[in-house]
Amino acid sequence: MYVGELLKSLDRVSTGVPGLDDLIGGGFIPGRVYLIVGPPGSGKTTFGIQFLIEGAKNEEKGLFISLLEHPKIITQDMLRYNFGLLTHLKSKRILFYDMGESIFGAGRRFTWSEIFENILRIIEAEGVKRVVIDSFTSLEYSVLDPEHKRMALGRFIRKLHERGVTCLIVAEMMSSENYTEDYYLTDGVIVLHHFMRNYQMVRALQVLKMHGVAHDSNLKKLRFTEEGLRVYPEAPF
How far apart are the C-alpha atoms of 84 and 72, rounded to whole Å? Predict the structure, then answer.
């Protein structure tokens, strides 16, 4: 069994973002947990939807767990792209779960463990292999026990590994110098950047960390297109 699991880790799960798979050996390692982080408007949610769209094209059921925005708003925003998102929603190859309503509308605070256990129950009930959790940062100031995050998150990631779920955790970039537990405990970290240069917005993607995969950590040009995000092999400047 151990050898079989090692061989399985050689497989790849496409990110759904054109140009990115080439930077990380063909895609994500299945059954791992990755952090997608960036400032406002950098494309984090779009990245997550593209990941689920790619799975839906290959008959893989995906789940988007929203912790902040209403799924209706996210769906409306994504209609600007040629994703065919509505088709995948109607076929139930992509599911939305509004967890924010149950957390912030409960009238009480939850512990990190309670939140993660609830997420695992949702994942198991839906029987999905691709999951996006957006936005993780919204929980930071609403939990009952912020000091227990590292231990609870570590257990959560281990359980996702055991279930073979490939998960993207979306988070806001709080600081370029102070890293949260997410950076250390996840299997990979992809940072979306945007800069002002000569009065124009320049976008970039950086593979900051990727366990088990040779990767280029230099900034790569990133653009929004009608098909969503696209990564280019050259530097953004």
Answer: 15
Judged by DSSP in three states, 155 sits in: helix
Which residue in the block uniquely carries the two structure tokens 């960036």? 38
Q: What is the fold of 30-190? A: Rossmann fold (3.40.50)
pLDDT in tens, the chain (237 residues): 454 454 455 689 999 999 999 999 999 999 999 999 999 999 999 999 999 999 999 999 999 999 989 999 999 999 999 999 999 999 999 999 999 988 888 888 999 999 999 999 999 999 999 999 998 888 888 899 999 999 999 999 999 999 999 999 999 986 666 788 999 999 999 999 999 988 899 999 999 999 998 898 999 999 999 999 999 999 998
pTM of the predicted model as reported, rounded to 2 decimal places: 0.93
The residues spanned by each domain of the chain are 30-190
Alpha helices in 33-148, H assignment, sequence order? 44-57, 71-78, 85-90, 99-104, 112-126
